[in-house]
Design a protein that fits this description.
Layout (H helix, E strand, L loop, with lengths): L2 E5 L2 E4 L6 H9 L12 H17 L4 E6 L6 E9 L7 E7 L8 H16 L4 E5 L5 H9 L3 E8 L2 E9 L7 H4 L1
Antiparallel strand pairs: 1-2, 2-3, 3-4, 4-5, 6-8, 7-8
Helix pairs in contact: 1-2, 3-4
Amino acid sequence: MNIIVQTPRLIVREFCPKEEILLVNLYKDERVTRYVTKRSEDETLKQFTEALAGYKSSPGLGRWGVFNPIDDEFIGVCILKPADSDPTRIELGYVLNPKYWGAGIATELSKALVFYGFEDIGLTEICACTHPENIASQNVLQKAGLVRDGNIFWHGADLPFFRIVKASPKSSPKERT
């Protein structure tokens, strides 16, 4: 299994084939699906299979599991990949087990994914959207440096749109002369 990002409180890594039940169970919780697209178990399993295949076809981008580094407990799922609604844009997203809500995990995860995207794989822009009523996730995105940029029609709805653009490196005095 390939680790994508690690912080003191989380490990973001590729899923193992035997972990499909983790994703299925996460999406069975109605608190979790309040602001995200509801999927059948078959749709979730298809999404999981596509994620595993994507590890080979799109290295560096994907849908990954988020785990506790101490006990390997499943925290949730995250994405940094071409958006389904606009494959020319890279979308950041996450869904966490309610047990981890309100503890700063989503902010820590989002900041780590932005850093990874810009510094490790060379992205120049990262986007995200949220349900209009999901103020907590909107706050998380802003804490991670994303800025509200109107609305966008993604995932079949008109949603608040956020983005962050990698800052250009400052030129040194020698480069300016």
